[in-house]
Design goal:
The complex is a heterodimer of chains A (204) and B (214). Chain A is mainly alpha-helical. Chain A is built from 5 helices and no strands. The N and C termini of chain A lie far apart (62 Å). Chain B is of the alpha/beta class and 214 residues long. Chain B folds into 2 domains: 46 residues; 138 residues, Rossmann fold. Chain B is built from 9 helices and 5 strands. Chain B has a 5-stranded parallel beta sheet, sandwiched between helices. In chain B, helix 1 runs antiparallel to helix 2. The chains are: A mainly alpha (204), B alpha/beta (214). At the A-B interface, helix 1, helix 2 and helix 5 of A face helix 1, helix 2 and helix 6 of B.
């Protein structure tokens, strides 16, 4: 009879504790939140595509005379994607018990996110049309504004995590850095949403 | 269904995937115009949706307890069928005099209760079935141990094999068409996952209740 292979042998210490397929309630809360967020963004995208497809043959999309700063938004996209790298670096650092890496990663992510938001605000002030101008303008401000609000929430979560990390919280064990992991998941979600928003609103 | 945001690392990987996919959309837009970019966008979005709808990622390879002697160790995994005569017969037939038999009864739960971590009732019911099964096995001369396992049968097997160096596994299910485990391909996944012989026993509880028919 073949004996069981020893993928990971344990010698002088007891075997690892039993795992559970249950999802940690805090993680479950984040999943449900992201599911609701996906539906919220989905409704905004539905409005966007409906407006775009229906009744704009004559005026065009975007309407004649309105131009979006595609390259400025591209710079903003690169900034936000870079912040995902720094967020990932922060979490990998604390997994290796590298506290300075965690703090540097969170600080960098926060600053990049803040830069993104400030550039977006500056874009709004100089774009030359307002939300009530026409359907295109409404959906543009609706989608990008919704995303901007999420970046703002993400910045608050990051700031909270950063303050806690400066106070010496978090550790390499999974249950000890959930306070970094959850904002990280949220931040990546916000990043993915921006990539979709940028592509649909600015590119296609 | 795959959850691309299951952990920070997977979410980061998903960001990278999205960057690549939407770079393709941008390239299509720059080369062929907005309409083609829209078509590429829709195709990629549907492809991504199909990927997410796919089966969840298999759990990591399990850690196994070390086999220290040649003793026969049988791991029996069964839920509602744990008290079935067919399973009992198979275990009695396989077990030798000094065999070590561990019966694991996963605490089957409703999805809602599972997600809410409300599993006390499911564990209590599984424990009751397990006790009955162990009693029946003892009556037939097989001294077996038992434990209530995780609701996911693969996770329950992983857990058991951490401390129990089984050299064969017996998995009992309802007949095809009535078995949730068969629908989830538990037997096939277990055969791929564990390097020991796996015996599948089908227990038809309804037929056993009706009694022997001519």
């Amino acid at each position: 009879m073949a004996s069981v292979a020893h993928a990971q042998e344990h010698h002088d210490h007891p075997p690892a504790a039993h795992k559970s397929s249950r999802v940690d309630s805090r993680l479950l809360g984040m999943y449900l939140f992201l599911a609701s967020e996906t539906m919220l963004f989905g409704s905004f995208f539905t409005i966007y595509f409906f407006d775009r497809v229906v009744g704009h043959d004559e005026v065009g999309w975007p309407p004649d005379g309105l131009e979006l700063p595609v390259y400025l938004a591209l710079v903003n996209t690169i900034i936000l994607v870079t912040s995902s790298f720094s967020m990932h670096w922060a979490l990998q650092s604390i997994k290796r018990n590298n506290r300075s890496g965690l703090i540097a990663g969170l600080t960098l992510t926060f600053l990049l996110g803040l830069t993104f938001l400030l550039i977006q605000i500056r874009e709004y002030t100089r774009i030359g049309f307002g939300p009530s101008e026409n359907a295109f303008a409404s959906t543009f401000f609706g989608l990008t504004g919704l995303h901007g609000a999420h970046v703002f929430i993400g910045l608050n979560l990051l700031l909270y995590a950063l303050i806690r990390s400066l106070r010496g919280h978090y550790g390499p064990k999974a249950e000890d850095h959930l306070g970094v992991e959850l904002p990280g998941i949220y931040w990546h979600f916000v990043d993915v949403m921006w990539i979709v928003v940028y592509t649909t609103v600015y590119v296609i | 269904m795959r959850n691309p945001f299951r952990s920070e690392s997977e979410a980061f990987g998903f960001v990278l995937v999205c960057v690549v996919l939407f770079a393709l959309v941008a390239a299509a837009g720059a080369l062929f115009g907005g309409l083609i970019a829209l078509v590429v966008f829709l195709v990629l979005a549907v492809g991504l949706a199909v990927y997410i709808k796919g089966p969840p990622k298999e759990q990591d390879r399990p850690a196994f307890a070390r086999q220290r002697d040649d003793r026969q160790r049988i791991l029996v995994v069964a839920n509602e069928t744990v008290a079935g005569k067919a399973l009992r017969g198979e275990v009695v037939r396989r077990a030798q005099e000094d065999s070590d038999v561990l019966v694991v009864c996963p605490a089957l739960n409703s999805p809602l209760r599972h997600w809410a971590s409300d599993e006390d009732g499911a564990r209590a019911k599984a424990q009751t079935r397990l006790d009955e099964s162990l009693g029946a096995l003892a009556a037939e001369g097989v001294e077996a141990r038992g434990e209530v396992g995780d609701a996911d049968p693969i996770q329950a097997m992983d857990d058991a094999l951490r401390t129990f160096a089984a050299n064969e596994i017996v998995v009992s299910t309802h007949p095809p068409g009535r078995s949730n485990w068969l629908e989830k391909q538990v037997i096939e996944r277990a055969r791929e996952r564990y390097p020991v012989p796996i015996t599948h026993v089908v227990v038809d509880l309804e037929r056993e209740r009706e009694g022997p028919t001519g």
